[in-house]
TrEMBL record:
It comes from Methylobacterium dankookense. The chain crosses the membrane at residues 50-71, 83-102, 142-164, 171-194, 241-262, 274-295, 307-327, 339-359, 365-382, 394-417, 449-468. This is Ammonium transporter. Gene3D superfamilies: Ammonium transporter AmtB like domains. It is found in: Cell membrane; Membrane. One of its GO terms (molecular function) is ammonium channel activity. One of its GO terms (cellular component) is plasma membrane. Residues 1-26 form the signal peptide. SUPFAM superfamilies: Ammonium transporter. Belongs to the ammonia transporter channel (TC 1.A.11.2) family. It is a multi-pass membrane protein. InterPro entries: Ammonium/urea_transptr, Ammonium_transpt, Ammonium_transpt_CS, NH4_transpt_AmtB-like_dom.
Length: 497
């Protein structure tokens, strides 16, 4: 025991002597380890994998059955074929160059479109990650590619409903390739491309840590460069949580232009062009509602409270719009219809899409009530007054519902109305806080985004339709239209009994 105490005393004395000889040894801290790169959370990854599958289900079979049931028997198979072909083509274009055009820096054209640095998924592997909306949180890049791919797949498929039963299949294929390349990919870039919360937060931290004027200027320039590395509509401050502009207004106005340029179906306004199977339409609408949880809640990119907010908003806005359309139609036409209620539900889903993660549940209910009533008026009174043949009401539901939702997002995001407020990543670098909100400023930003989308897609789509019409032709012959596109275009029938 004495030997052990003596040894301890001797070692302690040696250490004390060493510190007296070199005092700096007592003050030198251990070197700090470099912060580890963020690692994807398995819960977030699982949710995004599920969301991607849910959004695919919206297209096939959801949208295919919803639209298919609304056309006549002789055109059912053609609608199913068109939608399945569109989603397959868009899937391939997305991995070839679409993802790169939407979500990389486009150099001098970066305001409008990305570049080709990730064409054919160059540089992407199982270890690649992308940012979410929280500092220090990432998901695998392959998951993000798949999720955004499903948006690119369903958006051109929505357009089909506007000119159902009369467009040539070959023309539709060419239009799809051109439209997603020249209209959709740039729109996705302009609205959703930005540097991410960590890039903004790190630049803001560097600015806060700067001590002299030179370093402050350099840090401010770096922060400005990060903020400038974004799409044009994003920099305008336009809010679009899950695709009000990118998906619904974009597809809705393209469909409207298409139905005008192709002209009315033979017998429109004279013959009965009733849906052949509202049962199929009911099944399709129900699948769309379920799939829309992936669409809206999945757009949060994380499995957290904001995803739950987007989910409950998708529940209540849809129900409110279905009830709104039902009772307005009941009051004005004397009978409540299944088709009306289903159309109202889709209108609610469309309207809540841009607001899903920004509005509160009560605000979403009001949004649904308004969307259901307004879209009913557009699809009945206005459509009949103007006489255009939007076969399955793509314009009246998707474009008008998308406009209502996009504008309302600028109002309902207000914390005073139960919204979450505007995201701010710079005030407290490294974390997300609520920024200042001004109603007029935000409404102007939303209005500019709506107007730009209408012009971009409307004018661009018109040019594409015209080019196709003068080359291979847009519309089937009168004989083929009377026979039905199932046989005329595909040589088979949906039903053989």
């Amino acid at each position: 025991m004495k030997l052990r105490n003596a040894l301890a005393l001797g070692l302690g004395g040696a250490a004390l002597a060493l510190l007296l000889i070199e005092p700096s040894l007592a003050q030198t801290p251990a070197p700090e380890a470099a912060p580890a790169a963020p690692v994807p959370n398995k819960g977030d990854t699982s949710w995004m994998l599920i969301s991607s599958a849910l959004v695919l289900m919206m297209s096939v079979p959801g949208l295919a059955l919803f639209y298919g049931g609304l056309v006549r028997t002789k055109n059912m198979l053609s609608v199913l074929t068109q939608i399945f072909a569109i989603v397959s083509i868009a899937c391939l274009l997305w991995v070839f160059f679409g993802y790169s055009l939407a979500f990389t820096n486009g150099g001098g054209l970066n305001d409008f479109v990305g570049g080709l640095s990730k064409a054919f998924l160059k540089g992407v592997d199982a270890n690649s990650t992308v940012a979410t909306f929280s500092n220090g949180v990432v998901i695998p890049e392959y998951v993000y590619i798949c999720f955004q791919m499903t948006f690119a797949m369903i958006t051109p498929a929505l357009i089909v409903g506007a000119f159902a039963e009369r467009m040539k299949f070959s023309a539709l294929v060419v239009f799809t390739i051109l439209w997603v390349t020249l209209i959709y990919f740039p729109m996705a870039h302009m609205v959703w491309y930005w540097g991410g919360p960590d890039a903004v937060g790190n630049a803001a931290k560097a600015l806060a840590a700067a001590t002299d004027e030179a370093s402050k200027k350099a840090a401010q320039d770096a922060l400005d460069a990060v903020n400038a590395d974004a799409g044009m509509l994003f920099k305008w401050g336009a809010l679009d949580f899950a695709g009000g502009t990118v998906v619904h207004i974009n597809a809705g106005i393209a469909g409207f232009v298409g139905c005008l340029m192709l002209g009315k179906r033979i017998g429109y306004g004279r013959d009965l062009l009733a849906p052949h199977s509202l049962t199929m339409t009911m099944i399709g609408a129900s699948l769309l509602w379920v799939g829309w949880f992936g669409f809206n809640a999945g757009s949060n990119l994380e499995s957290n409270g904001t995803a739950a907010l987007a989910m409950i908003n998708t529940f209540v806005a849809t129900a409110a719009a279905a009830v709104s359309w039902l009772f307005v139609e009941w009051a004005l036409k004397g009978k409540p219809s299944l088709l009306g209620m289903l159309s109202g539900a889709i209108a609610g889903l469309v309207a809540v899409t841009p607001a899903a993660g920004f509005a509160g549940p009560m605000g979403s209910i009001v949004l649904g009530l308004v969307a259901g009533a307004v879209c009913f008026v557009m699809c009945s009174t206005v459509k009949n007054a103007l006489g255009y043949d939007d076969s399955l009401d793509v314009f009246g539901v998707h474009c008008i519902g998308g406009i209502i939702g996009a504008l309302a997002t600028g109002i309902l995001v207000s914390p005073a109305l139960g919204g979450v407020g505007l995201p701010d990543y710079t005030t407290k670098p490294g974390e997300l806080v609520v920024g200042p909100y001004d109603l007029a400023t935000q409404l102007i930003a939303q209005g500019k985004a709506v107007g730009f989308t209408l012009l971009w897609s409307g004018i661009g789509s018109a040019i594409l339709y015209k080019l196709i019409d003068v080359t291979i032709g847009l519309r089937v012959t009168q004989e083929e239209e009377r026979e039905g596109l199932d046989i005329a275009d595909h040589g088979e029938r949906a039903y053989n009994y």
